């Protein structure tokens, strides 16, 4: 099992599915979080920051900051990298659980997650931050796999709805 991927490496999987930069950031966060829950290790080495609209991997943001918020990232921006089977299966599971949600739905979900909330403690809701989102046994204790050892599928109505116009 290779675990020294970069977040940009992992991004290519989701870019090939057709995502905008906002949705990509949240899928990276959930990929890292659930990989930790399943394997007690990180999927990629990059840190995740607690930005106003949820978790962000800075290097991935810098790569796609030129794009309009809702624009789908061109598939040509995906790198051709062979991921191991464990990683592919994991990313398929993340996509099955979260891929049907919009970027704004995912923003809402992340704002309710303990790792992001803990990282934003003491900050105003509109205050920029580069604090790291900590993913560990304490912050992921409420994330549980279903009876088939899969990530539960998230329903749209489970989101808070605050960023639906985002």
Give the overall shape. Answer: globular
List low-pLDDT spans: none
Beta-strand percent range = under 5%
State the major sheet: 2 strands, antiparallel
Mean pLDDT level: 91
Total E-strand runs: 2
Structural class: mainly alpha
Helical region count? 6
* Helix and strand run: HHEEHHHH
What's the N-to-C terminus distance?
38 Å
What does this structure look like?
There is one protein chain. The chain is mainly α. The protein has helices at residues 7-15, 21-39, 58-64, 85-98, 103-110, 114-119; strands at residues 49-51, 54-56. It has a two-stranded antiparallel sheet. It is globular and about 40 Å long. The termini are far apart. 36% of the residues are buried. The mean pLDDT is 91.
List the helices and strands and how they pair.
Blueprint: H1 7-15, H2 21-39, E1 49-51, E2 54-56, H3 58-64, H4 85-98, H5 103-110, H6 114-119
Antiparallel strand pairs: 1-2
Task: Kindly list the characteristics that best describe this protein.
166 residues; mainly alpha; 6 helices
Brief summary:
By secondary structure, the chain is mostly helical.
């Amino acid at each position: 099992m290779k675990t020294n991927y970069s977040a940009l490496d992992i991004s290519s999987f989701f870019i090939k599915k057709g995502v905008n930069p906002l949705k990509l950031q949240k899928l990276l966060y959930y990929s890292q979080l659930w990989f930790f829950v399943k394997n007690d290790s990180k999927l990629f080495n990059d840190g995740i920051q607690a930005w106003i609209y949820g978790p962000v991997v800075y290097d991935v943001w810098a790569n796609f900051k030129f794009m309009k918020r809702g624009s789908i990232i061109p598939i040509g921006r995906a790198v051709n990298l062979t991921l191991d089977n464990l990683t592919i299966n994991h990313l398929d599971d993340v996509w099955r659980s979260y891929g049907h949600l919009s970027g704004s739905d995912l923003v809402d979900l992340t704002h309710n997650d303990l790792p992001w909330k803990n990282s934003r403690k003491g900050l105003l809701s509109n205050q920029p931050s580069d604090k790291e989102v900590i993913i560990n046994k304490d912050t992921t204790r409420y994330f549980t796999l279903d009876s088939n050892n899969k990530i539960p599928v998230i329903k749209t109505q489970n989101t808070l709805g605050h960023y639906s116009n985002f």
